[in-house]
Design goal:
Largest sheet: 2 strands, parallel
Strand order of the largest sheet: 1-2
Oligomer: single chain
Number of helices: 2
Number of domains: 1
Radius of gyration: 14 Å
Strand content: 5-15%
Shape: elongated
Helix content: 25-40%
Number of strands: 2
C-alpha cells in the first residue's frame, strides 16, 4: 500500500496475477502513486503461500505460479487492468 497523500486523491485497487507482487507490480504502483493516487495492492495468494513471487519469464517459476493457482479453492475473475480504466 502506498503512503496516504496529503490531499484527497483517487484510490487504485491493483490486483496482481498469479505470479505475486512482483517488481513490475511495485513499479506500476509507484507510478500511480507518483500521479497522486493512493494504491492498495493486496497479496492475493497469502493464504496459500505468503510472500510468493515468481518470474513468468523463467519456465520453472512460471510453472510454480500455475501450480499455485490450481491449489486455490477460490475462483474469481477480474478484468479491466489498464491505466485508462475500463
Amino acid at each position: 500500500m502506498s503512503p496516504s497523500p496529503a490531499k484527497p486523491s483517487p484510490d487504485v485497487l491493483m490486483l496482481h496475477e498469479i505470479f505475486g507482487i512482483t517488481d513490475w507490480i511495485e513499479e506500476i504502483a509507484d507510478w500511480f502513486t507518483g500521479c497522486g493516487c493512493q494504491v492498495i495492492s493486496p497479496d492475493m495468494v497469502w493464504r496459500i503461500k505468503p510472500g510468493f513471487v515468481a518470474n513468468y519469464r523463467i519456465p520453472e517459476q512460471r510453472e510454480k505460479g500455475l501450480r499455485l493457482r490450481q491449489q486455490s479453492p477460490a475462483r474469481a475473475v477480474f478484468t479491466g487492468f489498464g491505466q485508462a480504466g475500463t
